Amino acid sequence: MADIQTKYQKLAQEYAKLRAQNQVLKKAVVDEQGKQTEIKDSVRERDQRIRKFEQEIDSLSFRNQQLTKRVNVLQEELDNVDIKGKKTKNDQGTASSSPSSVIGEELKNKIEENAKLHKQVYESSEEHRLLVQQLQDRLDNLERENNQHQSVLEATKTRHKDIVERLQHDKAKLEVKLQSQEKNASDSVHKAEHYQDELDKIQQDLGVKLAWAMKIINDKLAFNDTEVRELNALNVPTHDKKHQLKTKEVMGQAMTMVSELCAGLSNFHTYTEQRSKIFPVDSSMGSISSTNQKFCSYLHENASYLRPLDQAFKTFHESIKEEALTTLETATDLQDFSAKFSKYVAYLNKLEPYQLLSLEEECQQSSCSHTLEVRNMELHATYKKFTASFNKLDTYIGLLAAASTKSCDHLQTNHRAFFDKLAECSQSLYEVMKDLSKNYNYKVSLEHQLPTATQKLRTTDECVVSSLISLVTCTGKIANFAKANVEFFAAPAAYRTRGHSFMAGDQEGPLTSPAVTQFRSKAIGYMNSLSRSCPDSVPYEKAVRNQHVLLSSTMSQEGLSQQVANNSEKITRLEQEKEHWLLEAQLMQIKYDKEIQRASQLEEELQRVRNSGGKASSPSQETMVREAMANAVPETVPTSSGKKAATQIDTSMLGQLEGIPMEFGESDQTSRENLIKDHYTARLAEVTSQRQVTDGKAVKFSAECRALQKRLTLAEKAKDKQLEELQTAHQTITQLKDELQTTTRSYEGQLSMMSEHLCGMNDKLTKQKDEIDALKLSIKQPSKKPFKK
Questions:
Q1: Angstrom distance (rounded) from CA 575 to CA 578
Q2: Is the separation of the CB atoms in 117 and 63 below 8 Å?
Q3: What is the CATH number of domain 2-195?
């Protein structure tokens, strides 16, 4: 029901949003239509102007034609005049020169005027063409925007219509489902009541049987602690050999990885020692610095730390037997490995300052460029992280190894956190080794470009790079191994309880118990708990009865809904009666005031009659007044029984005062008041029912809004989570691409170096073969000389 209300609330919100969007879109469409009307008006005005310009152009063309004809006529006259001038005498030519000059001047003026008119016509036509083009472009853009707005409006209407239809369909399905669930709930309640009756009968039977069994056990059987789980925890348990075999297998894998790590670290230290003797100063050609001498002497001692470390882990692996369960509390040989690892970490801490000083000496060389110095400083920082990673690893290995000591002070529940931290440290060591390999590869590539780089240095650097690559591979395996086996390492010991999980042929326990100390402490705690008083608790019968009452009162949805409906009807009826009795009280108050006023008038008249007439007054008048007062009393101040009777009549008739007789000429007024009261009573009942329906709808829509808001929040959280995962995936892809490029470059460098080495070896072999052939010829030639003689 809450989901339906939530959906309706969300639907109401969406409908409100759509109405708001619809108003905005309608306003935008109206604005666009207004703009289009304005543009059409402007286009109409432009067309009028264009037609005006065209008329002017036509008139100018007509005038131009007339002027052209006039010029032609004048030209012909001029030609005729010239021809005549040649035939006449000089005086006639002198006399005719004046008209020809006038005609030429007029012709020149007409030509200039014609040119100006042509220029104006051309400018007007160009301006008109540009204006028409601009208006046409603007009209196209506005039509395009109008079409887009219309399409968006239609799409929005269609989409929200589909949403409304889908929600209505969901509402219908949920109503059907709600009816089925209510029916199932009612059936379940009936079944629960039936089962509760059966349970009571079974409990009675079991109570009798339990009393009989307890009597037999107390009288006939001895104490057997394998029947109760809490007491059976005091026994020494047996262990699962499959778990032990897997432990040995996993430790075998770890031994292989530790051996590879030790071999890789030994190669790295050895090749670093060789490089320190060659660069920055070759020891065969000069004396190296005191720092490098000390550094080389310490690096030469790496085998004395790494070999015992490898041997200690092999010893720990050999100590894992199938006869006894191996846990952190029983793995005493892990302490030796932890001690050897701590010694090697101390050795790394001793090497770190000399390693850093050696790098700083390389940066101080004159041949060291700024880029190489930056790479050396990056390698400088990476070496610090390398040592720090081993220190963290040593801390958690020491904590795990300390679990088998007698002075161990950390709880067994912390082992899971230790293994998690150990996996994180392994992953951190893997990341540091990748950075170290990458930075060292960059440094080597820059050093090999220097003119002082020798072939010996290049070969040694390639060996160091290969050792770092092997370390990266090995630490990656260790990180994956630690992460994959955290659950296995942190899982509790695989014990089997005696008396419940015996297998055929497996009746005997192990030779040694791995948890004697733990169960001894449990036994002490149990003996102490026996002396304590039992805590107060609710009796079982009372708890079952309370649960039955709770289930019967909370699980009956049909009964609750019926109660809600009855209460709503009762509230409605009470509100109607409240309004009715408020009106009744007002009407009775008005009548009461009138009757009191009338009684006061009658008393005044009676007093006046007594004062005026005295004894001479007629008794009939006083008797009449007393009867009027007596008749007025029941109407003005009714008794309690009269009120009760009136209440019963009015409740059934809802405001019709039929039980009270009206006198003193007030029947018309009473009927009118009754009609008004009936009208307002019916109106109040109608308004009350409408208000209740409206409240129900409001509550329903509010619940739907809350549910949809919750779903929206969950969707946004899921979206943020997916975005974070996508970003992490992109970062991982980028990192893998960088690693691939680094590995590709290193392999390409190694292949090129091996190719050069092979070429050099081929050259050497060729030279040696030539020398051998020459020697063979030199040997053969002396033997041939005697024959020549």
A1: 5
A2: yes
A3: 1.10.287
